[in-house]
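Please decode residue identities from the backbone states below.
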């Protein structure tokens, strides 16, 4: 059975790693040199977690390791890189934020483009008109090239309430 991430981190830091929270560097105690890690598909530096003498514990972000070493636990929120550099894992560059705050900062820094949507307010009004006129959800979804779930959410007021 695999241990929870916080327990795996605790063991890795207690037994295998030295973490410099000022620079964000993680060093192997055994070899005395920085861990190499890998850059994942999202651009974050990640390390293999030791578990039972092997790296079978999955991977963990360097920013998570530094946060855990500094704070003693991971935040319930997202850990954000204040300057937008996913490889700058110094504790002073890390901040616990909500998912929405993380997305807004990434957008403001140009790391992601604005949220794209297939619908506009005008198209939402058209969807509602079609549904009110008795057109089936599936037909409306095909016509507007969206999922049936999206049409139902518009109809039920779960999304686009202000349109």
């Amino acid at each position: 059975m695999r241990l929870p991430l916080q327990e795996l981190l605790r063991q890795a830091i207690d037994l295998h790693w030295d973490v410099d929270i000022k620079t964000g560097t993680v060093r192997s105690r055994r070899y005395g040199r920085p861990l190499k890690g890998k850059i994942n598909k999202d651009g974050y530096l990640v390390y293999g977690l030791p578990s039972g003498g092997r790296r079978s514990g999955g991977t963990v972000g360097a920013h998570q390791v530094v946060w855990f070493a500094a704070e003693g636990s991971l935040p319930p929120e997202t850990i954000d890189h204040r300057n937008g550099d996913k490889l700058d894992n110094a504790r002073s560059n890390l901040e616990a934020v909500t998912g929405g705050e993380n997305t807004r900062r990434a957008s403001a820094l140009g790391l992601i483009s604005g949220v794209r949507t297939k619908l506009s307010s005008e198209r939402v009004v058209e969807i509602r008109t079609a549904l009110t006129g008795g057109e089936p959800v599936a037909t409306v979804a095909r016509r507007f090239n969206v999922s049936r779930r999206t049409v139902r959410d518009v109809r039920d007021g779960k999304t686009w309430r202000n349109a």
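Observation: The CA atoms of residues 12 and 31 lie 14 Å apart.
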